[in-house]
Amino acid sequence: MPRLKPDTHRARRENILDAAFTCFARGGFHATTMQAICREAGISPGALYVYFDSKEALIAGLCERDRAEFAERFARLAEAPDFLEALAAIGEHYFVAESHEKQRFVVEMGVEATRNPRIAEIFMGVDKYCSASFEALFQRLKDEGRIAPNVDIPTLAKVFSVLGDGMFWRRAIEPKADMRSVLPVIIEMVGALLNPTDELPVAHKAAAFEVRR
C-alpha cells in the first residue's frame, strides 16, 4: 500500500475524529460502537484501526484537538491589552457560539471520567492544562501590576474554573439558556475578583495604542 501524503493522512484522521465526535455526542460513550463510527466516517474497520485502536484513543484525539484549539485562543488572550474584553470574546465562543453537541460531548466525557480511569486521565489532563494556563496568566498579570486580587492566585483560578464549568453545564442541559445575557455579569464578577489596575507594561501600552489607531 503506497504511503499517504501528510495532508491526506491528516484529513483522514480529522474525518474519523469528526465522525467519532458526532457519534459520541449523539449516543454517548457506551452506546457508541466502533462500527457506528466507521459508518459515520464512511470507512472500513480496518481503515479506522490504522488511526485509532479504541474508543479511548478516539477520545484522546478529540481532547487533544480541543486542547490545541484552546492553546491558540489562550495565546491571543494572554497578549491582549484589555484582558477582560478578550476574556469576554473567549466566553462568547465557548458559552454562546459553540454548538450544543459540543457541550453535550464534554459533559458526557466528564461523567464517563468518573467511571473510566483511562477517560479520567485524558479528560482531566486537558482540564488541568486549561486551569494551569489561567493560573499562570493571573500570576503574570499580578506580577506585572495589572491586577490586584484580594485572594491568592490558586484560589482565584479555581473560582474562575467553577464559574466557567457552571455556564458550560447550564448550556449543555438547557440548550435554550440565554448565555449571552449571563456572560457580561460573569465577566463583571471575574473583573471584581481580579481587581484590574490602570497600570500596563510598556509593551501592552504600545499594543493598546496600535489597536486604537
Automatic annotation (TrEMBL):
Gene3D superfamilies: Tetracycline Repressor, domain 2. One of its GO terms (molecular function) is DNA-binding transcription factor activity. InterPro entries: BetI_C (IPR039538), DNA-bd_HTH_TetR-type_CS (IPR023772), Homeodomain-like_sf (IPR009057), HTH-type_TetR-like_transc_reg (IPR050109), HTH_TetR (IPR001647), Tet_transcr_reg_TetR-rel_C_sf (IPR036271). Residues 33-52 bind DNA. The keyword Transcription regulation applies. Keywords: DNA-binding, Repressor, Transcription, Transcription regulation. Residues 10-70 form the HTH tetR-type domain. PROSITE patterns: HTH_TETR_1, HTH_TETR_2. Pfam families: TetR_C_6, TetR_N. PANTHER family: HTH-TYPE TRANSCRIPTIONAL REGULATOR BETI (PTHR30055:SF234), HTH-TYPE TRANSCRIPTIONAL REGULATOR RUTR (PTHR30055). This is Transcriptional regulator, TetR family. The lineage of its organism: Bacteria, Pseudomonadati, Pseudomonadota, Alphaproteobacteria, Hyphomicrobiales.
